[in-house]
Amino acid sequence: MVRVLGIDPGVANTGFGVVSWNAGKITPVDGGVISAPAGDDIAVRLRLIHDSIAELINQHRPYAVALEDLYFGRNVRSAKAVGQARGVTILAAAQAGVPCFDYTPQAVKKSVCGSGSAEKDQVQRMVAALLGLAEEPASDHTADALAVAICHAATLRAGDIDAGPAVTPPATLAGVPS
Fold this sequence. Notes:
Number of domains: 1
CATH class: Alpha Beta
């Protein structure tokens, strides 16, 4: 059984989701949002994100970190901030020796919903259905992070990975539906 930490990066809100994968079955482990106060200096916010990701990696010992890739829409400033959050996430993973994998938003949506143009509410519904959650994650950041983790876990094939330590997921998904 292996764990995957999914990240939906952002400077204000970074979503995270942890799933375990065992013989094709994906199980929820944890999920939530790292919120960095808007009034804080960018360096302080990025440090909070880095430290929180490092703590999640230490706590859950994932086989991999899967990140939503940078999307350059019309807002270059927003893309820059997301890139900075991605950078500190990748740094935290590298410091722990955990490999990172990137997935475009369209690839994640296609993996989870069957369509690369799915809406956020559809992603939330499908994440809940795929993970057997009693209700949808209330935060789209949490849902997106869990979707990225599901996307990566779905790519795992028996024999392609070192199974790592066995893990037992908790009865409830901490932080969901938050």
